[in-house]
Design brief:
alpha/beta; FAD/NAD(P)-binding domain; 5-stranded parallel beta sheet; 4-stranded parallel beta sheet; 10 helices; globular; disordered N terminus; oxidoreductase; FlavoCytC_S_DH_flav-bd_sf
């Protein structure tokens, strides 16, 4: 397709879709190309912003149903009572006003690869030259048959997508009598945020220690052992919450008795006052047609993040089939967004993408109201195997939990929120 014909098609498409946009900045001339981004999380919002920073002549349309971004990292501190929902919420205002990203507040339901359109639940389709999907994760409710209905899901929360369920789970904990039992059931890896469940039980235990000292926390882990920062978490549990947290590995949930408040395991049942069940996870629903591995995850070209299942479709973040030792984390999704943005800009300008991208990951976990631990790693593209590989000797874990790392955690959060949304 030559540039003149493409410009004509873009202008024509804009004429039928822009009328439905809310809060869009005006475009003084026909854009060089249009990129649609589905999902305003760490991957999608970063990609949208950086495409505009790298080449303002490219039109970027971000499709996101929520009015504001709510961060999963730090959301466990809302459960602990150390942060509020307002503390972890950031508006999309800067993306629109500072960077000229056009935001459509709607839900993407499908991608029509042939017509190059994203279909929406309410509005007109959004046309694109390239589309970036960053829909996060969805849940495999079929693994827990009794949890298939809305009533069950409203009673037994996951709170693994920060937002209303985060606040609702906090209210359940506040309403629980002193002496009660909070049960967190977590799935086998891979799942979003490997250290997240272990941090969550620390935060809930910190709340109980201060306000409900006779209460207990029971962590049912489907894995054989703690999957991230194991020695650091076990030390925190022993030193800070010795008589509060009980850890049970090899405890895979197979169903839930919602009315009886019981988690059904492969071997035995566990009853609690507040159940918090994380089902197995898979790529976000809008990315389902591009799943290529285990009926759960999407494979991509790590130089461009273009799907191996469809051209002009790029996929980021937690929906990906991870490369070796690559976690599903906020920092990683933010890095995916930047590498993908640079590649998309290069491709639109008929240039070659960076042949050797490098990603840095850091995951902090607050083990109390003030103390934290971290794990870090560096991942570089391996040309021979065409995948990202961890760089030997780079990264590592904390020597011990401490308050300095707690301050680093808050600084990390402020920085990544500014980098993604500011």
């Amino acid at each position: 397709m030559n540039m003149r014909r493409r410009d004509f098609l873009i202008a024509g498409a804009a004429g039928v879709t822009l009328a439905g946009f809310s809060g869009c900045a005006s475009t003084p001339s026909a854009p060089k190309a249009r990129v649609a981004v589905v999902g305003g999380g760490y991957g999608g919002a970063t990609a949208a912003k950086y495409i505009r920073m790298l080449d303002p002549s490219i039109e970027v349309v971000l499709i996101e149903p929520n009015e504001a971004f709510v961060s999963c990292p730090i959301s466990n501190m809302v459960l602990g009572g150390f942060k509020t929902m307002a503390d972890i919420t950031t508006p999309y205002t800067a993306l629109e006003r500072t960077h000229g990203v056009k935001i459509v507040r709607d839900t993407a339901t499908a991608v029509d690869v042939e017509k190059k359109q994203v279909r929406l639940s309410r509005g007109d389709p959004v046309s694109f030259d390239r589309v970036i999907l960053s829909p996060g994760i969805d849940f495999m409710w079929e693994a827990l048959p009794a949890m298939g209905g809305a009533d069950a899901q409203n009673a037994v929360l996951h709170a693994w997508k920060a937002g209303p369920q985060t606040a609702q789970l906090r209210r359940q904990l506040e309403a629980m009598p002193d002496g009660g039992v909070y049960v967190l059931s977590m799935p086998e890896a891979p799942y979003r945020c490997p250290p997240g469940p272990y941090e969550r039980v620390c935060q809930v235990a910190a709340y109980f220690k201060a306000s409900k000292p006779r209460s207990k926390v029971l962590l049912l882990d489907a894995n054989q052992d703690v999957t991230s920062k194991g020695p650091l978490f076990k030390k925190a549990w022993a030193e800070l919450y010795k008589d509060i947290i009980e850890y049970r590995p090899n405890s895979k949930a197979v169903d839930v008795d919602v009315r009886g408040s019981v988690v059904k395991l492969e071997f035995g049942d566990v009853k609690g006052n507040v159940l918090n069940v994380l089902p197995p996870m898979k790529a976000g629903n809008v990315a389902a047609p591009f799943i290529t591995v285990n009926r759960r995850w999407c494979e991509v070209d790590w130089l461009t993040y273009e799907s191996k299942a469809a051209k002009n479709v790029h996929i980021l973040g937690d929906s990906l089939q991870i490369a070796p030792a690559m976690p599903k984390s906020a920092t990683m999704a933010n890095g995916h967004g930047k590498v993908c943005a640079a590649a998309v800009v290069a491709l639109i300008n008929n240039q070659a993408p960076n042949p050797s991208p490098t990603l840095i990951n850091t995951c902090y976990s607050m083990v109390s109201g003030t103390q934290s631990v971290h794990v870090a790693s560096v991942h570089k593209y391996d040309e021979k195997d065409r995948t990202m590989k961890a760089v030997p000797g780079a990264g590592g874990v904390s020597a011990a939990m401490n308050e300095a790392e707690g301050a680093y955690t808050m600084n990390w959060a402020a920085n990544i929120w500014a980098d993604t949304l500011g």
